[in-house]
C-alpha cells in the first residue's frame, strides 16, 4: 500500500533542491559521529595502554606469605575459657618465614595444571645500592628471566639490553632506570649492592628496566634467581613469591581461593589487586559517551530545526499532496525518509572522518620516558564502535525527524488551501 | 436518474472563534455528465461545502455519497484513496509542486494510485497534456511556467486517474479573461467529449451562466 518509490523520489527532490540546508543538517551529524569515533578510539586506546601498563606486569595470581596475626589466638584453644569473653591486648603478627614452604613442588604442581599458562618463582630481597658513600634502599628481585618474558610483557620494559644478556651473565643486573639516572650509571658499568646483613656484592649492569611507574623504577632491579639466592645466602629452594599466569583470566578469583587453602599461603588475584583500574576505565568511557551524546543531541536539534523550517516552507505542497490522495502517513514518511537519509549520509561521512582522524592521531609522535615501547598515540580500532556510531546517528535523526514529520502528518489541507 | 455525487442533510458548524452554523441542511445531487456551478457571496459556505464534498473535510453531520457509496465516517486512509482514484481537484492558486517538472506533477497522483506501470503513466500524462495543448511544457520546471499554463497543468493532474468527478474551487479566479475562457472551454470539452461530471465553485457570473446548472447559495442554504 505504501509506495516507497514515489515517497523516496519526493524526499530526494526536496533534499536536492535544499542542498544547503541538507548539507548543514548532515554536517551536524557528521561532526557528532566523527567526534564520537575519534574520541572513543583514542580513549579506548589510552585505556588499553594504561591497563596494559599495570595489568601486564601484574600476575593473574600472586602467591606469597603475608605477615599477619593469627586468626585464632592461643587462648581460644583452651577449653576452660570456652564460654567466657576473652580480651587480648597488643596482638603481634605471627612469626613466619618469608619463603614459601615447599615452593619447588608447588611450582611443579602448577606447571601441570592445564588452566595455568605458566608459573614463575621470584625472590624479593631488600638491599641497598651503594654509590660512593650514599646508600639507596631498594629491592632486588631474583627471577627466571626467560620464563618471565614468555609469560608477561616484561621484555617490553627492558631498555638498552636483552633478557638473554641477563640470563647469560651470572652476576648481571637489570637496573631500575630511575636508579641508573640517580647514580649516573650506564650499561656495562658495575654497581655495588649490600644486603641488610651488610655483605657487599658487585653486579654488572646488562640493561635497564623501565616500567613507567616512577616509584618502581626508582627502587627495583632484577637479577637471576640463583644470583639473588646466593647474595642472600639461601638455598635453591628459597622462593618468596610465585607468579601465576592463567590461560583464562576469569578463572583467577576461584583458583586463587583454592590455592590459598591448598598450600596455606596468601593468594591474591588480579581483580583484587587492580580493582581501581577497572573503575578508571569505566569512568573514562562514561565521559566519552556523555560528550558524544551531547554532540549528537546538538546535531539532532539542527535536524529538527531544518526539517521544521522545511515543513513550514512546504506547507502548500503538503496540502496538495493530501488533496490529490496522499495519506497523512505518506506525508510523514516523506519527511521521515529525509531525516533518515540525512542521518545515513551524515553518519556514514562521520564514520569516515572518525576513522581518518583516528589514523592521524595514531601516527602522531608520542614519546614519553614512562612508556619505552610507545612511539605514537595509542588508538584502538574496534568495528563495534563504528556500528554503535551509525546506530547513534540513525537514532538521533529518527527522534529529531519524528516531531516535525508527525506535525506534517496532521496538517489539515483544507486550512492551507483556503488560506484561513 | 444516475447521480455521481449526493448529499443528505449536511450540517456544519465552525466552533472558533464562536459557534457559527455555516451549512444548513444541504441536500442536493450532481448527475453523471452534469456541469454544475456553485455561486454565492463570500461567507455563504460554498467553499466549505466543496471541501466536504471533496472528502478532505470530515467534520460535519449528514451523509455524503460518491458513486452511490456512503463516504461519511470512513477512515482517513480510505478517504485518501477515494480522493486519489475518483476525485479530481483544481484550486484557485494553481498549487503545483514547484521543484518537479510539469510531467512529474501530472504523473504524481497516478504514481500514488500505483495501478499502472511507470511507462503507462507517463504515456497517459503526455496524452492529457496534449489534450490540453501544453505537451511542449512537459519537461519544464513547474515554477517556470505562466499562471494560465499552471492552471492547465493542474487540470491535467486532476484528470490523470480518470476521476468520476472534477471539482474546482474558483479555478478561474486568479486568471485573466482570456485564460479563464480557455479553462471554461476545456471543462466544456471534457463534459461533452468524455462525459465527465464537473462541480465548480465560482464568483464569475459569465462562467456560471454558461454551465448546465447554477446552484445558488446564501447564508449556508441552497436557495435555487
Spans of chain A with pLDDT under 50 lasting ≥5 residues?
Answer: none
Mean model confidence by pLDDT of chain A: 85
What is the 3D form of chain B? Answer: globular
Distance between the termini of chain A: 32 Å
Please state how the strands of the largest beta sheet of chain B are arranged side by side: 7-8-9-4-10-11
User: How would you state the average pLDDT of chain B, rounded?
Assistant: 81
Most residues in contact, chain pair and counts: A-B, 25 and 29 residues
The residue ranges of chain B in which pLDDT falls below 50 over 5 or more consecutive positions are none
Rg over alpha carbons of chain B: 17 Å
Strand content of chain A: 15-25%
Named CATH topology of chain B = Rossmann fold
C-alpha end-to-end distance of chain B: 19 Å
SS summary, helix count of chain B: 7
> How many domain regions of chain A?
2
Output the CATH homologous superfamily of chain B. Answer: P-loop containing nucleotide triphosphate hydrolases
Question: How many β strands of chain B by DSSP?
Answer: 11
Strand content of chain B: 25-35%
Topology:
The complex is a heterodimer of chains A (about 425) and B (about 220).
Chain A: H1 4-17, H2 19-55, E1 61-64, H3 103-112, E2 116-131, E3 134-143, H4 145-151, E4 158-159, H5 163-168, E5 172-176, H6 177-183, E6 190-195, E7 200-209, H7 214-217, E8 220-224, H8 225-232, E9 241-246, H9 252-263, E10 266-269, H10 270-273, H11 275-313, H12 315-323, H13 328-362, H14 383-410, H15 413-418
Parallel strand pairs in A: 3-8, 5-7
Antiparallel strand pairs in A: 1-9, 1-10, 2-3, 2-6, 2-9, 4-7, 5-8, 6-7
Helix pairs in contact in A: 1-13, 2-11, 2-13, 2-14, 11-12, 11-14, 13-14
Chain B: E1 3-14, E2 20-26, E3 29-31, E4 35-40, H1 46-53, E5 61-66, E6 69-70, H2 76-86, E7 87-90, H3 102-113, H4 118-131, H5 147-159, E8 165-169, H6 177-194, E9 197-201, H7 205-209, E10 213-218, E11 221-222
Parallel strand pairs in B: 4-9, 4-10, 7-8, 8-9
Antiparallel strand pairs in B: 1-2, 1-3, 1-5, 5-6, 10-11
Amino acid at each position: 500500500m505504501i509506495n516507497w518509490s514515489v515517497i523516496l523520489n519526493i524526499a530526494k527532490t526536496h533534499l536536492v533542491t535544499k542542498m544547503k540546508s541538507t548539507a548543514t543538517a548532515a554536517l551536524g551529524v557528521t561532526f557528532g559521529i566523527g567526534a564520537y569515533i575519534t574520541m572513543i578510539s583514542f580513549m579506548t586506546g589510552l585505556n588499553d595502554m594504561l591497563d596494559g601498563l599495570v595489568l601486564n606486569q601484574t600476575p593473574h595470581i600472586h602467591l606469597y606469605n603475608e605477615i599477619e596475626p593469627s586468626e585464632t589466638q592461643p587462648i581460644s584453644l583452651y577449653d576452660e575459657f570456652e564460654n567466657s569473653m576473652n580480651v587480648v591486648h597488643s596482638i603481634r603478627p605471627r612469626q613466619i618465614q618469608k619463603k614459601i614452604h615447599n615452593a619447588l613442588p608447588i611450582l611443579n604442581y602448577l606447571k601441570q595444571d592445564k588452566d595455568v599458562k605458566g608459573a614463575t618463582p621470584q625472590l624479593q630481597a631488600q638491599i641497598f645500592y651503594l654509590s660512593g658513600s650514599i646508600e639507596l634502599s631498594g629491592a632486588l628481585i631474583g627471577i627466571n628471566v626467560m620464563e618471565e618474558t614468555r609469560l608477561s610483557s616484561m621484555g617490553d620494559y627492558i631498555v638498552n639490553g636483552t633478557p638473554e644478556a641477563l640470563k647469560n651473565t651470572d652476576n648481571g643486573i637489570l637496573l631500575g632506570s630511575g636508579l641508573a639516572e640517580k647514580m649516573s650509571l650506564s650499561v656495562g658499568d658495575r654497581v655495588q649492592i649490600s644486603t641488610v646483613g651488610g655483605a657487599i656484592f658487585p653486579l654488572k649492569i646488562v640493561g635497564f628496566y623501565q616500567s613507567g611507574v616512577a616509584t618502581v623504577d626508582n627502587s627495583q632491579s632484577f637479577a637471576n634467581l640463583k644470583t639473588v639466592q646466593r647474595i642472600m645466602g639461601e638455598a635453591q629452594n628459597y622462593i618468596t613469591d610465585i607468579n601465576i599466569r592463567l590461560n583464562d583470566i576469569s578463572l583467577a578469583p576461584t583458583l586463587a581461593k583454592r590455592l590459598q587453602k591448598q598450600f596455606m599461603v596468601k593468594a591474591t588475584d588480579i581483580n583484587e589487586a587492580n580493582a581501581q583500574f577497572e573503575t578508571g576505565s569505566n569512568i573514562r568511557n562514561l565521559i566519552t559517551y556523555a560528550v558524544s551524546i551531547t554532540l549528537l543531541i546538538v546535531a539532532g536539534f539542527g535536524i529538527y530545526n531544518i526539517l521544521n523550517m522545511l515543513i513550514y516552507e512546504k506547507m502548500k505542497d503538503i496540502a496538495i499532496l493530501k488533496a490529490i490522495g496522499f495519506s497523512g502517513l505518506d506525508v510523514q514518511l516523506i519527511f521521515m525518509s529525509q531525516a533518515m537519509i540525512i542521518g545515513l549520509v551524515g553518519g556514514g561521512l562521520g564514520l569516515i572522518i572518525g576513522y581518518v582522524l583516528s589514523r592521524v592521531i595514531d601516527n602522531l609522535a608520542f614519546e614519553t620516558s614512562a612508556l619505552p615501547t610507545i612511539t605514537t598515540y595509542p588508538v584502538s580500532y574496534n568495528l563495534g564502535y563504528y556500528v554503535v556510531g551509525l546506530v547513534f546517528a540513525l537514532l538521533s535523526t529518527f527522534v529529531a525527524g519524528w516531531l516535525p514529520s508527525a506535525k506534517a502528518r496532521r496538517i489539515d489541507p483544507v486550512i492551507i488551501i483556503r488560506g484561513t | 436518474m444516475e447521480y455521481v455525487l449526493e448529499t443528505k442533510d449536511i450540517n456544519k458548524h465552525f466552533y472558533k472563534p464562536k459557534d457559527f452554523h455555516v451549512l444548513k441542511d444541504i441536500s442536493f445531487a450532481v448527475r453523471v455528465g452534469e456541469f454544475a456551478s456553485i455561486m454565492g457571496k463570500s461567507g455563504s459556505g460554498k467553499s466549505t461545502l466543496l471541501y466536504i464534498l471533496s472528502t478532505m473535510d470530515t467534520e460535519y453531520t449528514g451523509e455524503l455519497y460518491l458513486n452511490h457509496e456512503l463516504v461519511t465516517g470512513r477512515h482517513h486512509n480510505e478517504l485518501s484513496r477515494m480522493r486519489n482514484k475518483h476525485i479530481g481537484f483544481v484550486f484557485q492558486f494553481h498549487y503545483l509542486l514547484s521543484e518537479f517538472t510539469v510531467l512529474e506533477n501530472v504523473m504524481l497522483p497516478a504514481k500514488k494510485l500505483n495501478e499502472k506501470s511507470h511507462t503507462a503513466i507517463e504515456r497517459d500524462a503526455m496524452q492529457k497534456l496534449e489534450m490540453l495543448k501544453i505537451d511542449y511544457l512537459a519537461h519544464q520546471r513547474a515554477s517556470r511556467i505562466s499562471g494560465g499554463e499552471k492552471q492547465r497543468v493542474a487540470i491535467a493532474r486532476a484528470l490523470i486517474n480518470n476521476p468520476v468527478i472534477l471539482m474546482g474551487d474558483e479555478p478561474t479566479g486568479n486568471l485573466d479573461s482570456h485564460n479563464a475562457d480557455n479553462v471554461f472551454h476545456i471543462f466544456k470539452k471534457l463534459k461533452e467529449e468524455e462525459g465527465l461530471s464537473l462541480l465548480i465553485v465560482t464568483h464569475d457570473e459569465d462562467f456560471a451562466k454558461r454551465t448546465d446548472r447554477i446552484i445558488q447559495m446564501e447564508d449556508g442554504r441552497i436557495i435555487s
